[in-house]
């Protein structure tokens, strides 16, 4: 049986009159990477800080393995590893000293895994933190987090400042956590990162989760991408319901079509000397833009 590690239920948060979190509800299970997807200002960081007890909600519940995370903050923090998007370190300590300090604060030891992570992320642990770039500061926090053995790992825009190689190293470590049956909450606006690591994706807009599901579940939202090889002019298909972005270059015809419009369009294509037909589901980027285009909100 898969256990519920983190449960968030009907979480509401206000800043003055501004309703910044609106009835947020979701669950993260063991061995699951749950991604919060949204642009800057969507409420991702506010949600994470509320889950951690750093902000007080107006109402709602947060439980970590059945324990109240909003009232038993010290106890639950011992079972969480957290990396914020902007990492601030003690300037006069070395990177290695800070890693060890962060581990001790959480009740964890410096192990061979810590050394392997330092090597993997190419961090010089002997340098003072004041000499580190943003990316190196981020590495310190990530190494400490991945070294810890906890129930829940929370990453808030964790690869900001990392080069592409180190971003890939981050992804591989997240997948290793998943394989070890750990729970991960990943907040990101980097679509490729989410697509490669997440089991469940929650799209958050203006403090409200407007859709949750696996990538294949969300693909019904955006249009399908169609490539057809035809022998005749098929540009009149652009007038059919659900068809957008149609272009024809010789025999090569490309367009997007809604799921509702697909049956009629495929039937019509046969009239244009159809030789080949390929359809691909929408990417996560296309799904994301469907929700944010023109400020529209889709009903669940």
From TrEMBL:
Occurrences of domain ABC transporter (ranges): 6-231
Keyword ATP-binding: yes
SMART domains, per database record: AAA (SM00382)
Alphabetized UniProt keyword annotations: ATP-binding, Nucleotide-binding, Transport
Top-level lineage group: Bacteria
One term of GO molecular function: ATP hydrolysis activity
Membership in a protein family: Belongs to the ABC transporter superfamily.
Protein name according to UniProt: ABC transporter ATP-binding protein
Organism: Leuconostoc holzapfelii
């Amino acid at each position: 049986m898969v256990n519920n590690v983190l449960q968030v239920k009907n979480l509401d948060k206000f800043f003055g009159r501004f309703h910044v979190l609106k009835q947020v509800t979701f669950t993260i299970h063991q061995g699951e990477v749950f991604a919060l997807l949204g642009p800057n200002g969507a409420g991702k960081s506010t949600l994470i800080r509320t889950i951690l007890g750093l902000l007080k909600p107006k109402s709602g519940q947060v439980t970590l393995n059945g324990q109240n995370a909003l009232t038993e903050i010290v106890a639950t923090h011992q079972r969480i590893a957290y990396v914020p998007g902007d990492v601030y370190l003690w300037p006069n300590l070395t990177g290695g000293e800070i890693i060890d300090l962060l581990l001790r604060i959480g009740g964890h030891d410096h192990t061979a895994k810590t050394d392997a992570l330092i090597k993997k992320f190419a961090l010089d642990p002997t340098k003072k933190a004041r000499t580190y770039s943003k990316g190196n500061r981020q590495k310190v926090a990530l190494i400490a987090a991945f070294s810890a053995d906890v129930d829940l790992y929370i990453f808030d825009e964790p690869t900001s400042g990392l080069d592409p190689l180190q971003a890939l190293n981050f992804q591989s470590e997240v997948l290793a956590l998943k394989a070890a049956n750990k729970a991960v909450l990943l907040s990101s606006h980097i679509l490729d990162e989410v697509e490669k690591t997440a089991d469940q994706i929650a799209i958050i807009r203006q403090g409200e989760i407007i859709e949750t599901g696996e990538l294949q579940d969300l693909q019904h939202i955006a249009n399908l991408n169609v490539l057809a090889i035809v022998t005749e002019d098929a540009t009149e298909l652009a007038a059919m319901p659900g068809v957008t972005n149609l272009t024809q270059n010789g025999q090569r015809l490309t367009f997007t079509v809604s799921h509702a419009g697909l049956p009629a369009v495929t039937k019509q294509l046969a009239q244009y000397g159809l030789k080949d037909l390929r359809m691909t589901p929408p990417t996560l980027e296309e799904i994301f833009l469907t929700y944010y285009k023109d400020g529209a909100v889709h009903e669940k």
